[in-house]
UniProtKB/TrEMBL annotation:
Keywords from the named record: Cell membrane, Ion transport, Membrane, Sodium, Sodium transport, Transmembrane, Transmembrane helix, Transport
Gene3D superfamilies registered for this protein in UniProt: Sodium/glucose cotransporter
Pfam family name, one: SSF
GO biological process annotation, one example: sodium ion transport
Name of this chain's protein: SLC5A6
A GO MF term: symporter activity
Protein's membrane topology: Multi-pass membrane protein
Species name: Bugula neritina
UniProt-listed InterPro entries: Na/Glc_symporter_sf (IPR038377), Na/solute_symporter (IPR001734), Sodium:Solute_Symporter_SSF (IPR051163)
Subcellular location as annotated: Cell membrane
Lineage: Eukaryota, Metazoa, Spiralia, Lophotrochozoa, Bryozoa
Annotated GO CC locations: plasma membrane
Top-rank taxon, per record: Eukaryota
């Protein structure tokens, strides 16, 4: 394991602040385990008695998909590859409208947390089983990634063993999720939202001051080319090998956000937990957009500020850190080294992002397994026994996610790109299935199965091939001119944009953010092929 080599580590006030945030999260779980109905029915445990106010539901829905991949990965992405990524903000409102108007009414009418009930009724058992297995495996992989991100950051800034940090994140999420059910998850997400937003704003303000002020941040990033969001010749490119363009980012955002807010068990579970009334759904989605916009803009700004701060001495090229994903933790430690407690606050925000996501996945995952696997085998099971089994399933999903971290250690890509590549494997085919099922009544189960298999196989091949085979790197150049480095080999390894057309390979040259678009189109193409020939 590699540790950040600055000699700057947590002090006791940092540990105190960090520990307090974790204790408060666990305390909410204990509170809801001992109050109200004490989580003895599936309605209370999985749906919070269907009586939740729209605000905590909206916050939970937003932060469940504002993971450590965003808080750690987005600053690193902007630092390394520029700001064109931010065009995802254009696609989010479109996705919110489509989710609220097209998907949510259908799934709400069914009244089940499990979206696979719709697939079963619309396309049959075979496709529902395929999507169930795909969804479970990729949810566990995604959960593992969300656990791994903050654990990596924590191990780097404290010297704590990586696997101890991994187990800590998973176990704390399991504790309050198993004890308090959805109510605990919703209110803990609200607490964690406050920690996340305060931590990010504090880092942005102090970091901007240390970097020389807003004008200096703008000047340095403009000169370096990282404000490429202002350059039409770059963001209007139609080359699919470009890491980010306007087209790929908007399409990517629409499909991922529909999957997150309109066609995911986590979203449906929260919508079903709302008090009745269409105004609650409207307020919920409006708040989700405001929160996600705010987080993405703040995290992107942190990336620009961090580059300004390290403009003459890149920490990766100089050997201070070994991964771009450690830039935000390193930046935090250096900015707050003389302000005890604030580093702990920032690490708390990263852990909170992870906890909110993994706890939501555990709770919704347990509900799906109960509905789709356990109840068909035991149709006469009592509600109280079903609740106990659901708690056991929540524990199981948490343990499996921890074990999947071992698999993720195989990949060296940034957290954000790995996150979106994994999401793309599942999102494109699943969104295509739901979209075609709702809009085109003539598509039957045979078409849906073949289309899904084609799209999933192709996207998996493309995604994992792109993560493993990386013949070239394209990023904005960095320098170590301002570092105290004497090792000439290190200086020789500073990266500049490199591209060799002779090494073209579809697996490694198409960018991670186009996988989901390919998979969506291939799934739809599969339906058309079957309809045309059969």
């Amino acid at each position: 394991m590699s540790v950040i080599n600055t000699g700057i580590y947590f002090k006791w006030p940092d540990y105190l602040v960090f520990s307090l945030s974790l204790v408060l999260s666990a305390a909410i779980g204990f509170y809801y385990a001992c109050t109200g109905g004490k989580q003895k029915t599936t309605k209370e445990y999985l749906l919070a008695d269907r009586n939740m106010h729209w605000l905590p539901v909206a916050i939970s829905l937003a932060v469940s998909f504002t993971s450590s991949g965003i808080l750690i990965g987005l600053p690193a992405e902007i630092y390394t590859f520029g700001t064109i990524y931010m065009f995802t903000l254009v696609g989010r409102p479109i996705a919110a409208v489509l989710s609220a108007k097209l998907f949510i009414p259908v799934f709400k009418q069914i009244g089940s947390i499990s979206l696979y009930q719709y697939i079963y009724k619309r396309f049959g058992r075979v496709l529902s089983i395929i999507l169930l297995v795909e969804g479970f495996v990729l949810t566990m992989l995604f959960g593992a990634l969300i656990i791994y991100g903050p654990a990596l950051a924590m191990s780097g800034v404290t010297g704590l063993n990586l696997w101890i940090a991994v187990c800590s994140v998973g176990l704390i999420a399991m504790l309050y999720t198993v004890l308090g059910g959805l109510k605990a998850v919703l209110w803990t997400d609200t607490l964690q939202f406050l920690i996340m937003i305060v931590g990010c704003i504090v880092l942005l303000i102090f970091g901007t001051v240390k970097a020389g002020g807003p004008s200096e941040v703008w000047r340095v990033n403009k000169l370096s080319g990282r404000l490429d969001i202002l350059e039409p010749t770059k963001f209007l490119s139609i080359d699919p090998r470009s890491r980010h363009t306007l087209w790929t980012q908007v399409c990517n955002a629409i499909l991922i956000c529909i999957s997150a807010y309109g066609a995911s068990p986590i979203a449906i579970q929260r919508i079903l937990a709302l008090k009745p009334g269409p105004i609650n759904i409207f307020l919920c989605f409006t708040t989700v957009l405001l929160i996600t916009f705010s987080f993405q803009i703040i995290c992107a700004a942190i990336g620009l500020v961090a580059f300004t701060y390290y403009k003459t001495c890149d920490p990766v090229a100089s050997g201070v850190i070994f991964s771009k994903d450690q830039i935000q933790p390193l930046f935090t430690m250096e900015i707050f080294q003389n302000l005890p407690g604030l580093s702990g606050l920032l690490m708390s925000s990263v852990f909170s992002a992870s906890l909110s996501t993994i706890s939501s996945a555990m709770n919704a995952g347990a509900a799906i397994i109960l509905q789709e696997v356990i109840k068909p085998l035991k149709p006469n099971m009592s509600d109280q026994r079903a609740t106990v089994i659901c708690k056991m399933l929540s524990t199981l999903t948490g343990i499996v996610s921890i074990l999947f971290v071992i698999f993720l250690r195989l990949f060296g890509n940034g957290l954000l790109s790995v996150t979106l590549a994994l999401v793309g494997i599942a999102t494109g085919p699943s969104v295509a299935v739901f979209t075609v099922g709702i809009i085109f009544p003539f598509v039957d189960g045979r078409c849906a199965v073949i289309g899904n298999v084609i799209a999933t196989a192709f996207t998996t091949w493309l995604s994992f091939g792109g993560l493993i085979n990386r013949p070239y790197v394209y990023s904005y150049p960095v320098t170590t001119a301002g570092c105290n480095i004497t090792d000439e080999n290190l200086l020789a390894n500073i990266s500049s944009p490199v591209y060799d057309p002779s090494t073209w390979n579809p697996q490694s040259h198409y960018r991670y953010n186009i996988y989901i678009v390919f998979s969506f189109n291939n799934d739809s193409l599969g339906y058309n092929i079957v309809i045309a020939f059969f």
